[in-house]
Amino acid sequence: MPIKPRYKLSDSVAPSRRKFTDREEFLDTFKEALAQKDSKTHKIIVYYGVGGVGKTTLRRELCRIIDSEHPCVLWSVLDFDNPSQRDEETALFWLRKSFNNKYSIDFPSFEIAYGFLWQKTRPQIPLNKDNCSLIDEGGLLSDILDVAGDMPGIDIISAGVRAVVQGQKHIREWWKRRGKREAKRLADMEPQDILKRLPMYWAADFKENLDRAEVETLKVLSIPRFFNFDIFENLIGHFKTGYPLTAFRELLRFSFIDKDKDEHSWVMHELMRKNLLKALPEELLKRVNLRLFEFYSKMLEGIKAEEVTERHRTAMIEAFHHGEAALHPEEFAEWCLVIGKTMNHPSLWSFIAPIYEEMADLFREKLGVAHPAVARSFELLAITLQNLGEYKKAENVAKGVLKEIEASLGENHVYFRRFLNGLGTIYLDRAKYAEAGECFQRALGLEKNAKEANHTRIALCTGNLAIAYDYQGKYYDAEKLYRESLDIIEKSMNPGSVLAGNTMGNLASVCSILGKYAEAEEFGARSLGIKKKVFGTDSLEYASGLNEHSCLFLTNGKYDEKEILGDKHPDVARMNFTLGEVYKNRKVEEK
Q1: Are 326 and 335 in contact (CB under 8 A)?
Q2: Which residue in 210, 281, 392, 554 is deepest, having the highest Cβ count within 10 Å?
Q3: Longest CA span, the chain
Q4: Smallest Cα–Cα separation from 250: which of 236, 234, 271, 270?
Q5: Alpha-carbon distance 285 to 280, whole Å?
Q6: Are 108 and 179 in contact (CB under 8 A)?
Q7: What are the angstrom distances between the C-alpha of 373 and each of 278, 301, 350?
């Protein structure tokens, strides 16, 4: 075979990048070692083989695994194929450079020890950035050189003091704590003693950084009201405090961290939380709260009310807490109203009512009573309390808001009219029909005199006033108002709407009481048709409408024309019972 060069300048096309495959056993061994939780137990894994079997490619894959699956693990690489990295002091300096560049870890004790070692072992060679390529900007040794120039012939301690004074805060703190004392000891040491202790100085600096990372991690974890591994990973991975994810369990050793109600979550003692929070700058505090808000609100995306679990309830509470601290009030209000609409379900009313109350008070304080979000949040609160049967509390809420709106915005403001109408519906639920009628009458008058007439609100107030009269037995007045409301709906709104259907049903009932059976049947049939079209035949709304329509026929004496739900409908038993009661009552009347 002819001798050929291994590489040629003409080979300008880069080789295709291949996907790493195979070596599953080696990868699994490495992943298992990474998952080791006991920090006091160290593992050494050796991969060996002849040249060309893929050891370097495997090493690159192991590095990729650390970066992708364990982003908070601190790591570096020493290549002993490089002769300079086989030398202990150079290898340590190389690791110092690598960790400083990747993780901003400082090694002041190691650097000043290295400076003394160089001065004592190479007095004829000045230490400067040209002679030692490992010296980079930002380290203590670099700062000393900037102050003193070349190393030989100068007092390292004096130069170090000047460099420290000009240096960063944590370097100055290190100098006071142990740096000055260590420098004096190093000045009296023999070179071989310094060389032996270089790994100790390196490790001490590294450990101090980890301790600092631990403190910074605890500061970040003081912001959530509780934390688990998911929250820890999310926050520490994002804010890069330097603390390894694999050491999560070590944080739990502190006496001020206890288990929460959930077995897999922990809480920090409130006094410790407050002290740590004081040490956080306002901007970081806001950013961590925003991160937590996004973490929890993501759990609620696309959720339906009937799918809400205890986990979603917790997410709602925590998202509200952190969103209040992180978002602008208007942005936060928009989110609250959207998520509140999702939570509007009978199974969630008891859960959501206290949140609505806190939300409404918060928005009133931050945005003022004139803001739309304030009115909407108090409406949601009042309606939810109403749904829960807490009518007195709902009434107090509506009255309080009405009084405030009237004082600040006047009775002609749209919010005043809306809350006045809402207060009337609460009075209806409390059987205070006269008070309800007064609210609806006043609201109707204000709506009709408004600068821009709103047909929907006029129709609604008219219909509600009719209901108040209906409940008081004022059937002729109720009939007149029901017809007025229906006329507005059919002329200015959607004649096939739910509001139209409900109004027709109420009108049918009043017509039946007044003996206008033909009209009662007509309006009842139209109402039922709308409910069937809008809700479907399997809905509670349609079943209720069908029952009312059937009772109209029974009340009118048309037994053969009655429409019952059907033999297979779940409400058939109730309907048959109602029918039996009608027959029984009619026999009593005949006697």
Answers
A1: no
A2: 554
A3: 132
A4: 236
A5: 6
A6: yes
A7: 32, 21, 21
The secondary structure of 324-382 as a DSSP string is: HHHS-HHHHHHHHHHHHHHT-SGGGHHHHHHHHHHHHHHHHHHH-TTSHHHHHHHHHHH
Under a CB-based contact definition with an 8 Å cutoff, are residues 264 and 228 in contact? Answer: yes
Query: What distance in Å separates the CA atoms of residue 145 and residue 159, rounded to the nearest whole number?
Result: 8
Take residue 566 and report the two structure tokens written for it.
């059907």
* Dist. CA 514–CA 3, nearest whole Å: 115
- Give pTM, 2 decimals: 0.59
Check residue 167 and report its DSSP letter.
S
Amino acid sitting at position 420: L
CA–CA dist 560, 554 (Å, integer): 9
**Among 251, 294, 289, residue whose Cα is nearest residue 272:** 251
Cβ atoms 310, 322 nearer than 8 A: no
Interacting residues of 135 by C-beta distance below 8 A, sequence separation 6+: 127, 128, 129, 141, 142, 145
Q: Are 70 and 245 in contact (CB under 8 A)?
A: yes
Burial of 337 (C-beta count, 10 Å sphere; 0-12/13-18/19+): middle
CA–CA gap between residue 161 and residue 158 (Å, rounded): 5
Distance of CA 503 to the CA centre of its chain: 42
pLDDT tens-digit series, residues 77-108: 888 888 878 888 788 878 888 888 777 777 88
Distances (CA, A) of 36 to 30, 188, 229, 245, 342: 10, 42, 16, 11, 43
**Four-residue CA torsion sign, 316, 317, 319, 323:** positive
3-class SS string, 230-247: HHHHHHHHHHCCCCCHHH
List, for residues 487-527, the tens digit of each pLDDT value. 998 888 888 888 888 898 888 888 888 888 888 888 888 88
Q: Which ranges of 430-516 does DSSP label H, i.e. alpha helix?
A: 433-448, 455-471, 475-492, 498-513
Q: Please name the helix (run of DSSP H) or strand (run of DSSP E) that holds residue 259, with its range, or none.
A: strand 257-259
Please spell the DSSP secondary structure of 11-50, one letter per residue.
--SPPPPPPP---HHHHHHHHHHHT---TT---------S
Tally of CA atoms within 13 A in the half-sphere of 194 that contains its CB = 24
Task: Lowest mean pLDDT of 68-82, 241-255, 389-403, name the range.
Answer: 68-82
| Angle, alpha carbons 436-440-445 (nearest 5°) | 150
**227 phi and psi, to 5 degrees?**
-145, 150
Query: What was the pLDDT predicted at 292?
Result: 97
Tokens of 399: 């009255």
Q: Using CA atoms, how far apart are residues 328 and 274, in angstroms rounded to an integer?
A: 24
Length of the chain, in residues = 591
Helix (H) or strand (E) holding 158: helix 156-166
- Taking 80 as the threshold, does the pLDDT of residue 137 lie above it? no
From 133, 134, 166, select the one nearest 147 (Cα to Cα): 166
